[in-house]
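Per your request, structure below.
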């Protein structure tokens, strides 16, 4: 479906697969996929995604107040039960994204951080591992 390390035009991904064009969590309206978009520009909104010990920590959606398991956050948490694949992309420049790979959510944690209004809130941080690692460990 997607080619690892290939550069895609985000607009073209949405034209083909559907999903929210503005959100970092984009559940396809046509296929059983959820596209996740991560990048440095998220820091200005309080999001800090990144790798640690083989796990990719991905911030849930919601810029104001406590994050809840609604919309995209619910979709990530429940993707295995609902039969959806998670596909991670890295924003590299205006409108261009690099495909990182398929992932599986193995859990989440809550962290207290500030929202865009400067108020302390509860953030959902998802723990994602590459699909290949998930399959290998399941055997």
């Amino acid at each position: 479906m997607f080619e690892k390390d290939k550069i895609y035009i985000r607009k073209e991904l949405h034209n083909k697969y559907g999903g929210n064009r503005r959100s970092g969590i984009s559940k396809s309206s046509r296929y059983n996929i959820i596209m996740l978009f991560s990048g440095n520009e998220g820091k200005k909104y309080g999001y800090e995604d990144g790798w640690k010990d083989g796990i990719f920590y991905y911030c849930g959606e919601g810029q104001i107040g406590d994050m809840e398991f609604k919309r995209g956050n619910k979709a990530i948490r429940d993707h295995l039960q609902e039969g959806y694949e998670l596909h991670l992309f890295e924003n590299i420049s205006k409108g261009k994204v690099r495909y990182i790979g398929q992932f599986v959510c193995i859990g989440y944690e809550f962290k207290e951080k500030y929202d865009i209004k400067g108020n302390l809130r509860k953030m959902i941080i998802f723990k994602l591992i590459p699909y290949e690692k998930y399959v290998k460990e399941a055997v």
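The mean pLDDT is 92.

Regards,
D.
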